[in-house]
């Protein structure tokens, strides 16, 4: 979990040309791509579903697809996201489940994929402790989930990120620490200092016209 990675978030890409946007991220050196699934119920916005994951998978057979499910009943929809080509599936601890968080994490791993748990800015780190030994990734949301382009909630979320890192290191665990929301070359170093190694970048990556320069600047900020 030491190597910092910049993850372009498809939410901020130009969806009129998804295939070439994925290629642009790939050519800029992205190894992981972040896909935000929103259901209009768990969050106040609707984005896309498993079909889009399949489109991205088709556009790039090698990109690691990090799928962030901001939806209720992720366990009900799980097979569809697995089948579409997800490499990591992150579920929210605050969502409603037909089964349970633990059962859903186990099913993702049983399918041979990585699993993550996400925490809303209002949710304390303690909520993740029961699952800490079962996850590959812990996502500390640094904005209220639902929309790109919001400001980084430093004061509200950095103590939690640090707690997540300290707990991991004290217990010999290995989960990645991912931050998502308001990450720029100015804020990524703050998150890095508090333990993050995966940096989701929507506006800061897809906003500028030159993706290579955006990637270089973001990568340098956490080097
Ligand atoms: C927010 C999403 C983020 C979003 C980040 O609900 O989970 O992944 O794309 O966008 P920026 O980087 O613009 O804050
Ligand atoms: Zn996200």
From TrEMBL:
Annotated GO biological process: carbohydrate metabolic process
Source organism superkingdom: Bacteria
Enzyme class: isomerase
Xref: PANTHER family: RIBULOSE-5-PHOSPHATE-3-EPIMERASE
Family: Belongs to the ribulose-phosphate 3-epimerase family.
Annotated keywords: Isomerase, Metal-binding
Pfam families: Ribul_P_3_epim (PF00834)
Cofactors: Fe(2+); Mn(2+); Zn(2+); Co(2+)
Name the record gives this protein: ribulose-phosphate 3-epimerase
């Amino acid at each position: 979990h030491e190597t910092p990675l910049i993850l372009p978030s498809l939410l901020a890409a130009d969806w009129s040309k998804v295939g070439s946007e994925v290629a642009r991220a790939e050519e800029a050196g992205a190894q992981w791509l972040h896909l935000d699934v929103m259901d209009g119920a768990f969050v106040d916005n609707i984005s896309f579903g498993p079909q889009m994951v399949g489109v991205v998978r088709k556009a790039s057979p090698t990109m690691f697809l990090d799928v962030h499910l901001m939806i209720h009943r992720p366990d009900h929809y799980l097979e569809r996201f697995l089948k579409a080509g997800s490499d990591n599936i992150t579920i929210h601890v605050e969502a409603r489940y037909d089964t349970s968080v633990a059962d859903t994490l186990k099913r993702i791993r049983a399918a041979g994929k990585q699993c993550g748990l996400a925490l809303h800015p209002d949710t304390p780190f303690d909520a993740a402790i029961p699952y800490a030994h079962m996850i590959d990734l812990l996502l500390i949301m640094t904005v209220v989930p639902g929309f790109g382009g919001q400001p980084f909630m430093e004061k509200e979320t950095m103590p939690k990120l640090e707690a997540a890192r300290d707990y991991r290191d004290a217990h010999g665990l290995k989960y990645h620490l991912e931050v998502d929301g308001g990450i720029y070359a100015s804020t990524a170093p703050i998150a890095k200092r508090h333990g993050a190694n995966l940096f989701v970048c929507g506006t800061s990556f897809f906003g500028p016209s030159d993706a290579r320069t955006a990637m270089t600047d973001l990568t340098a900020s956490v080097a």
